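ok new one. same drill as before - structure tokens go in, u give me an amino acid for every spot. 276 of them this time. try not to just spam alanines like last time pls lmao
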């Protein structure tokens, strides 16, 4: 039986660091999924796990720059109605369409069907859009690929359609893991293994390409692990951070033996390519 969820909307006028801290604190008290918006963060927690007292444990809420603006219950059927009414198919570089099951099949070379539910990764967000652009430009023939922080699984699905032969899609969020599993089946992918967990799963594993669309702090923490999991000549694609964070990301990658290749920018967001 599908769960009902509580959506808490937070408004903030502070930095990406504060956003990351808020998300980490919310995750620690049971929130399962997050979406960064133009004005702040929307966080989701199962209704059965929710009580207003949880927010008293969030130290970030003591800052004047952050406030709780609304708390709403989202029943499963209402969630589906909401995203169906708002989710428009997108086309990336006239090559790849990302659409919902209720949209008509696309005429583009790549036609990916995603039912996002409460997971991140439909191509609408700037970071996912740029990562799709990077994947479309790359030759994935016979490559092994990791999609880290996979959300809906859209990047892994696209990489398989681009020729990758062995892929893993890892996310720490149980909802994302379940959703990615459904989307992998929906797109008839045969080579993707979804996994629930974090970078600790990468011990003794090797990939030709790693895709990681997460957030700055997690990337900075896990870049050494990603590098260890790359086999030369390997490629690391990163996104989930702002323009002002690029020097820090480049520095961390350089310290770990990677070479900066190029980057894309959409609004304030960056996606970057590094090679081993």
């Amino acid at each position: 039986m599908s769960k009902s969820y509580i959506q808490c909307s937070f408004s903030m006028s502070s930095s990406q660091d504060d956003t990351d801290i808020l998300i980490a604190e919310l995750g620690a008290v049971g929130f399962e999924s997050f979406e960064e918006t133009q004005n702040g963060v929307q966080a989701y927690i199962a209704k059965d796990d929710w009580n207003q007292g949880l927010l008293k444990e969030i130290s970030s809420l003591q800052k004047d720059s952050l406030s709780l603006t609304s708390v709403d219950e989202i029943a499963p059927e209402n969630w589906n109605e909401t995203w169906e009414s708002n989710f428009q198919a997108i086309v990336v570089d006239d090559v790849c369409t990302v659409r919902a099951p209720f949209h008509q099949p696309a005429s583009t070379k790549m036609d990916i069907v995603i039912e996002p539910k409460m997971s991140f990764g439909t191509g609408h967000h700037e970071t996912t859009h740029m990562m799709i652009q990077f994947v479309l430009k790359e030759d994935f023939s016979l490559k092994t690929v990791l999609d880290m922080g996979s959300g809906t699984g859209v990047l892994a699905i696209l990489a398989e359609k681009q020729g990758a032969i062995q892929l893993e899609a890892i996310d720490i969020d149980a909802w994302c893991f379940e959703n990615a599993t459904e989307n992998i089946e929906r797109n008839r992918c045969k080579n993707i293994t979804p996994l629930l967990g974090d970078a600790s799963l990468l011990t003794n594993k090797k990939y030709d390409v790693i895709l990681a669309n997460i957030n700055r702090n997690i990337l900075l923490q896990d870049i050494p692990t990603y590098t260890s999991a790359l086999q030369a000549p390997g490629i690391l694609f990163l996104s989930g951070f702002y323009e002002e964070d690029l020097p820090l990301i480049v520095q961390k990658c350089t310290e770990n033996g990677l070479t900066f290749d190029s980057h894309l920018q959409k609004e304030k967001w960056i996606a970057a390519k590094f090679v081993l």
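The mean pLDDT is 86. and btw DSSP finds seven helices and 14 strands in the chain.
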